[in-house]
Amino acid sequence: MFLVQEVQGQVKERFQDLKDDVRLVVFTQQSGCQYCADNQKLMEEIAELSDKISLEVFDFQTDKEQVSKYAIDKVPATAIVGKEDYGIRLYGIPAGYDFISLIESIRLVSTGETELASEESDYLKNLAKETHLQVFVSSGCPHCPSAATLAHQMALASSKVKADVIDAAQFPHLADKYNVSAVPHTVINETAYQLGAVPAPAIIEKIKETLK
């Protein structure tokens, strides 16, 4: 068991205001994935804490239709799905501070409530092109949940935005690819990046830069 009784109680309290059902769609594989089994077990324990949460588990190597449907390209992966698939993803097991991001993203998808200003939501909804946010985080980073939650709020607000939260230590090849030396580190549409936990307007300005 990953979640001790005290943590279970705290999570249940955070889940008291869940509104719509949430599906945790987990992708795993039997070998060659250090954190897959632990991630699946953690999500199983989370799903048991609220009748609003259900769990689906797919094998990354054999369930090709589901891998394609959810556009999963690495494991462990968890898609947090509500009334629809908002493009909200977690890659890696969310331990430490990353656990906060998991809980808050579940609440976000269930309640549909973001902290974005109306003009920010309107801009995102009216994007002409697809936008991909990749937020690199680590379990020991207290500022990472803020950056992760913001990206997921943007994905919830717009069908044009997809947001991945990626544990840098669990995917070092990606951290190297994007020159991640500190977290949170948000990659926007492959060509721009933002360091640190910043407010929404800063990310939106970066999005505008990439879409010129």
Give the arrangement of secondary structure elements.
Elements (H helix, E strand, L loop, with lengths): L4 H10 L7 E7 L7 H12 L5 E7 L4 H6 L7 E5 L6 E4 L6 H14 L6 H8 L5 E7 L6 H14 L3 E7 L4 H6 L7 E4 L3 E4 L4 H11 L2
Parallel strand pairs: 1-2, 4-6, 5-6
Antiparallel strand pairs: 1-3, 3-4, 5-7, 7-8
Spatial gap, N to C terminus: 49 Å
* Beta-strand fraction estimate: 15-25%
Order of helices and strands: HEHEHEEHHEHEHEEH
Secondary structure tally: strands: 8
Q: Could you characterize the architecture of this molecule?
A:
The protein has 212 residues and is α/β, with parallel strands linked by helices. It has 2 domains: 20-111, Glutaredoxin, CATH 3.40.30; 118-210, Glutaredoxin (3-Layer(aba) Sandwich). The protein contains 8 helices and 8 strands; from the N terminus they run H-E-H-E-H-E-E-H-H-E-H-E-H-E-E-H. The protein has helices at 5-14, 36-47, 64-69, 98-111, 118-125, 144-157, 172-177, 200-210; strands at 22-28, 53-59, 77-81, 88-91, 131-137, 161-167, 185-188, 192-195. Helix 2 (36-47) links the parallel strand 1 and strand 2 (53-59). It is globular, with a radius of gyration of 16 Å.
List keywords for this structure.
single chain, eight-stranded mixed beta sheet, 2 domains, 212 residues, alpha/beta, 8 helices
